[in-house]
Amino acid sequence: MNEPYLSVTDLRKSWPMKTVTASFSLDRGAALALLGPSGCGKSTVLRMIAGLLEPDGGSIRVEGRELSSVPAGKRGVGMVFQEGALFPHLSVEDNIGYGLVSRGMSRKESRAAAAAWLEKLSLEGFARRGIESLSGGEKQRVALARTLAVNPSVVLFDEPLSALDRALRVRLRDELRARQKELGYTAVYVTHDEDEAAVLADAVLRMPQ
Question: Rounded to whole angstroms, how far apart are CA atoms 99 and 89?
Fold first, then answer.
């Protein structure tokens, strides 16, 4: 029997008043939503998978490779934050190419790669735009392009739509789901919205308060 593409087993982080635990598995190209109220530990789970927070126990495996002791930058795991976390002093194309340049790619090559992602995400003509000129939805697509440009094995989304107004959230959640299916990346979403979880993911893991 084939091993799941992403396997999280008994992952645990404890504080004096709370312990967060999670176990789940995903096949390649599948999407999971971690659903629950604020404070239940959803973002903690993402941060442990990304390597931004050290777990107290448990296992994180991608394609059979144990990641628990691997530094964040070498895990091949991408993360899209609630506010996008884009660099305001860089253009759209240089935001998208930032991770590629950091890995040794030339500026010219990174901008060519950015142009390809802009086309995939229906943002042609945005390369030289400043971040502050973008709408909320455009910023989220740029953040997604920047994350996907470095070819992560898994993409984590921490409440990616919660800062947007409801009409835009509804449109963007449908777009995110369509892009995930089209591009085939494995995704884990954090949300407190039942409807959003149902649209974005193949499966939902409800986390207790």
Answer: 15
